[in-house]
Design goal:
The chain has 254 residues and is α+β, with helices and mostly antiparallel strands. The protein has two domains: 3-112, Serine Threonine Protein Phosphatase 5, Tetratricopeptide repeat; 114-254, no CATH class. The chain has helices spanning 3-29, 33-44, 52-68, 72-85, 98-112, 135-145, 149-153, 157-190, 194-233, and strands at 116-123, 126-133, 236-243, 248-253.
């Protein structure tokens, strides 16, 4: 196939896509949002033929159409696709409703953070966009393996070092006294001299109590580390967007 033929086919595809985009844009201007969504889906299914600029246009028209129909979760999905293609994408403030701009910019802010998961929950005409700090999943898994590791990972290095240090002491002592306790118990059980049985029992009992103290101490530290990392150390931000045909109300909880 000659270069001229390839160039002709490419030009034809681009022209055809431009014509189809014009049809979508015309439907959008006529407020025919279901048709916009249907046509945009059809074009995006063959997205390998589209440029990034064309994809951005289609996702934007589709996202605004869903928003106008109060299909907020679908709108969130479309705007998220835009930001996957171009994280710095902005909407024209002159041609875009302030309600839609606020919604889009909030999603953009959420997705801009690293280690973040954004989840939408929809009830009637209200969408709750919750931004979770995904570090918590990794921090909790580390904390469960060893207290202090999760805190250190999440940026609380001083607390992490303290928890890890105390855990090492308690766990090491628990292992040491467990071994000593077992040896003392064996010595006590083997003793046949009545004069020595009482002394060996006391040694075993003392080591047994010390072992339990350190085991319980390590358990308490482990439980504290999990509770602290889950509820107090790595937070999330919740953004609630209430959409109605006439207004958009936004509240943020930290």
């Amino acid at each position: 196939m000659t270069r001229l033929t390839i160039l002709f086919l490419l030009t034809s595809v681009l022209h055809m896509n431009a014509v189809e985009l014009d049809v979508v844009d015309e439907k959008f201007k006529n407020f025919d949002y279901p048709a916009v969504i249907l046509l945009a889906d059809s074009l995006l299914n063959g997205s390998e033929k589209l440029s990034n600029e064309q994809k951005l246009t289609l996702y934007q028209l589709k996202g605004i159409s869903f928003f106008s129909l109060l299909e907020m979760q679908q709108s969130l999905a479309c705007f998220s696709e835009i930001l996957k293609i171009d994280p710095g994408h902005t909407m024209d403030p002159v041609q875009t409703s302030p309600k839609i701009l606020a919604f889009f910019n909030q999603i953009k802010t959420c997705l801009a953070r690293k280690d973040t998961v954004v989840v939408a929950h929809v009830f009637k005409d209200t969408v709750t966009v919750t931004q979770y700090d995904d570090r918590i999943r990794h921090a909790v898994s580390r904390s469960m393996i060893f207290p202090g590791w999760g805190h250190y990972y999440s940026g609380q290095k001083t607390k992490g070092k303290i928890l890890a240090g105390v855990s090492v002491i308690c766990l090491g002592a628990a292992i040491y006294y467990t071994a000593d306790c077992n040896r003392a118990h064996q010595n006590y059980m083997r003793e046949v001299d009545p004069r020595k049985i009482g002394g060996k029992y006391d040694i075993w009992n003392t080591l047994y109590q010390k072992r339990n103290v350190f085991i319980l101490s390590y358990t308490a530290i482990w439980l504290y580390a999990q509770t602290d990392i889950l509820f107090f150390s790595v937070g999330n931000k919740k953004v609630t967007l209430s959409a109605s045909p006439t207004a958009l109300h936004m509240t943020c909880q930290f």
